[in-house]
Write a structure and sequence with these properties.
With about 425 residues, the protein is of the alpha/beta class. It folds into 2 domains: about 160 residues, Lyase, Ornithine Decarboxylase, Chain A, domain 1 (Beta Barrel), CATH 2.40.37; about 240 residues, TIM Barrel, CATH 3.20.20. About 30% of the residues lie in helices and about 25% in strands. The chain is built from 12 helices and 21 strands. Strand 7, helix 5 and strand 8 form a beta-alpha-beta unit. Helix 8 runs parallel beside helix 9. The longest helix is centred in the middle third of the chain and has 19 residues. Bound molecules: pyridoxal-5'-phosphate (PLP). Pyridoxal-5'-phosphate binds next to helix 10.
């Protein structure tokens, strides 16, 4: 659960009314609750207390430095997917020995950076990548710790764009080629095989797919042991879902209770990579109604946030609850589309949603916007990216500035031949 709630019909984050945040920082903006973040991290971490484990927060869900710093102070590691994420993680003080690096397309430069940073391990997704890591490690005179990411061919029963553990997906190494790949990895001089990894997808709302996938991995570990390959880490990935509307995902404790007994006797350290379940419901996107518009067929609420700020509804047809900043009794409800100012029909926060009647200037909170929200924001339509604010008790802290128009053109250059008499630059 989270710390966004009504007090006398005004919506608050912890002890701060959202209207105050809107006045101070403007809208749109992302707002995160410190209490929710800490509670979610601890609930997940402690659920696995009965086995040796590392929680590696999947930082593509939310990579703000302050949030990462908070995770680091709670003992979290990081699951990274790029050199940029490694830079952020190290910058925020996440210890390298708790950083794992996934992704099908790691470049040589990223591999070198990760080796020089002495991260815990690479989660390797192909034999081509194994050879490359071996090569780069040799150049540096190092040994690279790796886990092989196995595709367990399990249907997580989630949106196709966030399913990653099916045979047809680009991720991991197929289970029936796994032994061969492990043998290859063990034979490479600058590779140290330390683990096995799987991640079946995101927003998974049942325990069964996790258990089924793990059982496939356990069978593999047994075959590996028979061949003299002993692993030290088993990484079960992330993917635990959250409640956006009426989903009833298992509590992390239920997941842990199903997983821990299966791995307890393996003499392996367990790695988990939760993202959404930690941050998803800890954040909202605060927006203001600009106009209400009624056509022959429909009513629209036109708000100041758009698909470039939060793309999940457009990209995944995702549902986000929308709460009003100020509740009024006795106002009629209407079915509306909540849309943004971007020039695309796909620019919406909600479609055919029953909402209390709203006026221009009213605040709306797009709920469950802590994960895959700001991290997916873009500058489409040359819209500056919005600020991020962290609330703790009765105080708010700006943890990312609103971008300026100058920020929008930073790094762009107009060649001399296009600007006769000009300086050839936008500065
Ligand atoms: C995205 C991702 C995660 C996190 O997924 P959530 O659904 O946010 O928990 C974990 N591991 C890997 C390899 C990922 O790609």
């Amino acid at each position: 659960m989270h710390n966004f709630h009504y007090q006398e019909d005004l919506l608050y984050c912890e002890d701060v009314p959202l209207e105050r945040i809107a006045k101070e920082y403007g809208t749109p903006c992302y707002i995160y609750s410190y209490a929710t973040l800490v509670r979610h991290f601890r609930a997940f971490d402690r659920a696995f207390d009965s086995v040796p484990h590392i929680v590696a927060f999947a930082m593509k869900a939310n990579s703000n430095l302050a949030i990462l710093r908070l995770m680091a102070s709670e003992g979290s590691g990081a699951d990274i997917a790029s050199g940029g994420e490694l830079y952020r993680a190290l910058n925020a003080g996440i210890p390298p020995h708790k950083i794992v690096f996934a992704g099908v397309g790691k470049t040589r430069a990223e591999i070198r950076y990760a080796l020089e940073s002495n991260i815990l391990m690479f989660n390797v997704e192909s034999s081509g990548e194994l050879y490359t890591i071996n090569d780069v490690a040799a150049e540096l005179g190092r040994h690279a710790r790796v886990a092989l990411r196995i595709n367990p061919d399990i249907d997580p029963k989630t949106h196709p764009y966030i399913s990653t553990g099916l045979k047809k997906s680009k991720f991991g190494i197929s289970a029936n080629r796994a032994l061969e790949e492990f043998r290859l990895a063990s034979s490479l001089p600058n590779i140290e095989v330390v683990g096995v990894h799987k991640h079946i997808g995101s927003q998974v709302t049942q325990v069964t797919p996790f258990v089924d996938a793990l059982k496939k991995i356990l069978a593999l570990i047994e075959s590996l042991q028979a061949q003299g390959i002993h692993l030290r880490y088993i990484n079960i990935g992330g993917g635990l879902g959250i409640t956006y509307s009426d989903e009833t995902p298992p509590h992390p404790q239920e997941l842990a209770d199903a997983i821990s007994p299966l791995v307890r006797d393996l003499k392996c350290e367990l790695i988990t990579e939760p993202g959404r379940v930690i941050v998803g419901n800890a954040g909202i996107l605060l927006t203001r109604v600009l106009y209400t518009k009624k056509t022959e067929d429909k009513r629209f609420l036109i708000v100041d946030a758009a698909m470039n700020d939060l793309i999940r509804p457009s990209l995944y047809d995702a549902h986000h609850d929308i709460w009003v900043g100020h509740r009024h009794s006795n106002v009629p409800n209407h079915t509306v589309d909540v849309v943004g100012p971007v020039c695309e029909s796909g620019d919406f926060m909600a479609k055919d949603r029953l909402m209390p009647e709203t006026q221009s200037g009213d605040l709306l909170a797009v709920m469950s916007a802590g994960a895959y929200a700001f991290t997916m924001a873009s500058n489409y339509n040359s819209r500056p990216r919005v600020p991020e604010i962290l609330v703790k008790d009765g105080q708010s802290f700006l943890i990312r500035d609103r971008e300026s128009y100058q920020d929008l053109v930073r790094g762009e250059h107009v060649p001399e031949f296009l600007s006769p008499g000009g300086k050839g630059t936008t500065e």
